[in-house]
Every structure is written in C-alpha cells, then in structure tokens.
Design brief:
The chain is α+β, with helices and mostly antiparallel strands and 551 residues long. Helix content is 33%, strand content 21%. Strands 1, 2, 5, 6, 7, 8, 19 and 20 form an eight-stranded mixed β-sheet that branches. The two termini are 16 Å apart.
Length: 551
C-alpha cells in the first residue's frame, strides 16, 4: 500500500504545530490530525499567559539578575527530585532542556518574530535550601502577545506548508487506533466528526459522520494530557498529595481527556510517571466561562495572607507564589479542598494578575498604552471584573462582615472572627519594622529588592487592617486542574519506547503527551514557564528526528 504522507502528526496544539513546521522545513509531507475544529488550532497554548523559561536572557541582565546554566540546572534538579529507575530519560531531557533554555531557545524564537515583555516574573520561589525546590532568580518571561503570540509563528509556518502542498490539515478527525505493517506503526485509523463552528474552547459535537485510515512512515503523537478528565486525574492522584479533591475547577477544556495516551499504550508504548501531575491551588471559577467548569488561576504576589479552610495561616514557606505542589499537599491533608487569600485593595491592585490570554487583553493585544494603563489603575480591569462578578470573592469594609461573607460562601461557619483578627493583627505588628521574625514579611521585603517586583508585582509593606488600604477582600481558592507531568517515555530523539526499552518503531511523541520530554522532564514539580517551552523543545526535536529518520 502507498503512503498518504511521510508523517502523520496527531494533535494541532503547540507541540504538534512545532513538529509539523520542522517537518515542512525538511521538505516532508505531513497530515495533521485534530479532533477539534480548525478554530481551535494551537490548543491549550492559545489560552496561556505565554510564560517562557529562559536562562541568562537579555531581559534578566537588564534587570541585574545574575543567572547561569549551572544555577538553572541546580534549580531544575532540586525541583524535579528524580528518584525512580524510569527517570533515566526524563533526567537526560532535563539536561538537554536547560542547555536549550540557556542557549538557542530565545534566539530561535526571536528570529521567528516572538518578542518578550521587559519585566521578568519570579514564579515558584521555593523557600527551602539552595538545593531544594524553586527558582533562585526570576526566569518567567511573558511573551508579547501572550499565548497567541507564542503559537503565531508556528501557525504561520504550518499554513505556509499547506499552501505549498506539504501539509494536509484534517480537523474533526478523532484517532481511535494505531496499527503496524512489518513491525512498524504506520497506520492511523479513526472517526470523522461532523463539522462544528463552536467558539474556540467550547465543547464541540461528537457526532460521527464517517471513518478514516491514513498511512505514513512515521507517527508523531502530540495529543496533550489528562487535565480535562477529572475522573482520570483522581484515578492517578498520588498518595503523597493526600486524598484527591472532591471539587475542582478545570484549567483546560474537557477534550483534554488523555484518551490518545491509552491508544499508544495499547499499541506498545510505555506510559510512565502517571502519578506526577501539576495542579494549581489558586483557582477561581471564571465568572464568564468559555468551557464547562472553567477555572482561572491567580498569579499572586507575595503579600496576601494565605489561610486554610478554618482560617489558620499556612505554614512556612507556603506563601503565595512559592511552592505550588507543597501547598497542594498541605491543603489536601486539612480535610478540605479550598483555602483563602485575605488581603486589601492595595495588595489586589498591585499583586493580582490572572493567568490566560483572555484575562490580559493589554499584553495579548500588544498594546503599550493599555499596559501603561493597567500599571496606573487602582485595580486592573480583569481583576475588578472578578471582584464584581466572581463567586469566590468577598469584599467588605470591616473584618466582621468579611468573615460573615466567607462563612456564607462555604455554608458552614468555619472561620472564627476573633481568631482571624488575632492572626491579622499579629502579622500587622510585624510590618512596622524593617526587620521581623515573620518570614512572609521578610519575603515581601526581599521581593521588593528586585526591581521588577517593586515596580509592578509587590505592594509596599503595610497593615492589612489599615482603613486607608481597604476595603478588605477574601478570595476563596479552589484546586485547578492543569498539566500531566508524566507521559509516554521517549529517548532524546523523541522516539516512544516500549516496556522492553527499545523504540516503538515508527512512533514519536512530544509535548504534554510525552511529559514534555522523556515521559516526565519536570520530575515531581515545575519551575513554571516550562510547559510551553517543553512543547516547543520536544516538538522541534520530534519533527527534526522524524524527518531525518525517513527513507
């Protein structure tokens, strides 16, 4: 039988677009399949904030951040905490990714027209020792144009390939099986779904109108993870994080269901590190949802008082922005699956950013004027909309009313006003001096020594109960599903491996389906800004390797 293309790529998200673009550059013919309609091209990356992890970048150097390959590798390995036999390839991918992030990554993107916001963010600050989890320095670079700005050059390259006759775009094609000829996976079968004009991200029809079968010399799987499938998330939930939440909000659409991972596994591929996953603890119900149970994450500065469901302060170093999964583990051992930020107008105006391209119209629209307007605003417009309409927000002038509102949201009186007042007053006393025993206050003062945080991300230290800083605000925080850190095991050529350790002939994987490289390049935790970068690096690797291997 003749081949329909040189390579079939399954999934038109960022990793799939990147792999396809690289295959086109090598002159290969590609069929790009995706179950969603064409308007969803770019997948989850479209909705992202566009954060990318670079090492010793021009943006860092301009802000007097002293970064290095050695420091970044130390941070990555301390964060990943690789400790399993199957971590061989993830560790190799981690080393290769740090090489990429410290060298070619930024220049490669820059040549394609991608630009970056000049202020570097400091995510996952850790708070442990030098060899533990966290970024020692700010490394979170926001793409000018956010997620749409990241995918734009790859969409452009793929569409140019289609115009040249090298790419067939096959949307509404849902893969249901892989099969072999002479020991090599070369056939992809599935169902054709009826056309759909739904808005990007909304649930599309699953009505089947036909079947398909395509053959190629290689298959690249870039189908994403399991974050939209809460049943699968709970089934794979790690015991180290306690019991899975009874209630979660979704950071990804429902079609991110992990089904393709099972198909590859049934075909002989090895799926590793299923219990490694990345979910946020600062999730909000989107007041204007795109998909069902749509959650938005707060990107917080360090000043909000973080309380458990009963109003007890979270332990050191579980401050906002320091250790996502450490915080998740603590929360799930409290017996509740929600927590609270308590803060004031001054803090929310300076320190609250919301993740996602649609929540940052100024950056997404590349408007310098609007960015300046956001910096000057008392409270940024998207944040103000959540204050006014979000079901997780309580805004009051006095603490008693705030506590009543908090208890009304949870429908049981878990918060005691006297105890909460005592906690806040004690914290406020510590703010009066430049020195303190309160390590969160120390962290706030330390953050303001970094120019980027001082300018746009960290409020000046002040008393939360100061009437001049009001009104008071409480925000109920929910667990928000997001990323699969495990995935299909791949070697450094992105070839999917079998249980025996050899390659599954003809099959490559990239992006979240491959744990962003190797079956889990992040290990147990992420340094942030590394998911989009992992899609780019592994997609590029898969495309180039597949192109080179073809006859």
């Amino acid at each position: 039988m003749a081949y329909d293309a040189d390579v079939i790529v399954i999934g038109a998200g960022l990793a799939g677009l990147t792999a396809t673009a690289e295959l086109v550059d090598a002159g290969r013919k590609v069929i790009l399949l995706d179950q969603e309609p064409e308007q969803s091209m770019g997948g989850q990356a479209f909705w992202s904030f566009g954060g990318l992890f670079f090492v010793d970048s021009p943006e860092q150097r301009r802000l007097r951040i002293k970064d290095s390959h050695a420091l970044a590798l130390q941070d990555w390995m301390g964060t990943a905490a690789f400790d399993r036999p199957e971590d061989h390839w993830p560790r190799m991918w981690a080393e290769a990714y740090i090489d990429f992030a410290a060298d070619e990554k930024r220049a490669w993107l820059h040549r394609q027209g991608v630009r970056f916001f000049p202020v570097v963010g400091w995510a996952e600050r850790g708070g442990y020792d030098a060899t533990g989890h966290g970024n020692s320095v700010p490394r979170f670079h926001i793409t000018w144009g956010t997620g749409p700005g990241v995918i734009a050059p790859f969409v452009r390259r793929v569409r140019a390939g289609a115009a040249r006759g090298l790419v067939q775009l096959k949307f509404r094609h849902r893969v249901t099986g892989l099969s072999r000829s002479a020991g090599t996976v070369d056939t992809v079968t599935g169902e054709v779904l009826e056309p759909s004009d739904v808005q990007r991200g909304r649930a599309s029809s699953r009505t089947v109108t036909g079947a398909f079968e395509f053959r190629a010399q290689a298959v690249v799987v870039t189908s994403g993870g399991i974050g939209g499938n809460h049943d699968l998330v709970r089934a794979n939930w790690p015991k180290r994080l306690g019991e899975p939440p009874r209630r979660m909000v979704s950071g990804v659409p429902a079609h991110v269901d992990g089904k393709m991972l099972g198909i590859v596994e049934e075909s002989g591929g090895r799926l590793i590190n299923r219990d490694r996953m990345w979910h946020y603890t600062e999730g909000l119900h989107n007041w204007d949802p795109v998909w069902e149970n749509h959650g938005i994450r707060i990107l917080p500065g360090p000043s909000s008082l973080w309380l458990d469901a009963r109003g007890r302060r979270l332990p050191v170093p579980l401050f906002p922005g320091f250790d996502t999964l450490g915080t998740l583990e603590h929360i799930m051992r409290t017996g509740y699956d929600h927590t609270w930020f308590v803060l004031d107008r001054k803090i929310i105006g300076k320190e609250f950013a919301l993740s996602g391209s649609e929540q940052n119209p100024d950056l997404t629209g590349k408007s310098v004027r609007d960015v300046i307007g956001r910096a000057r605003a008392d409270v940024p417009g998207p944040v103000r909309a959540f204050m006014d309409h979000g079901v997780d927000f309580v805004v009051e002038e006095d603490l008693g009313a705030l506590v009543r509102g908090m208890n009304a949201l949870t429908k049981e009186p878990l918060i005691d006003e006297t105890e909460l007042r005592r906690e806040i007053v004690a914290r406020d006393r510590e703010i009066l001096n430049p020195f303190t025993k309160d390590l969160q206050v120390t962290a706030i003062r330390g953050a303001r020594r970094f120019l980027g945080d001082r300018l746009i991300r960290t409020a000046a230290p002040h008393r939360i109960l100061d009437p001049k800083a009001g009104p008071l605000i409480a925000v109920r925080l929910n667990v928000l599903t997001r990323k699969t850190l495990g995935g299909l095991e791949t070697d450094l050529s992105s070839r999917v491996l079998t249980e025996g350790g050899g390659p599954l002939a003809g099959v490559y994987a990239a992006g979240e389906a491959a744990g962003f490289g190797g079956g889990g390049v992040h290990g147990y935790r992420s340094l942030e800004g590394t998911f989009l970068g992992g899609c780019l690096f592994s997609g590029r690797t898969a495309g180039r390797a597949a192109a080179k291997a073809l006859g």
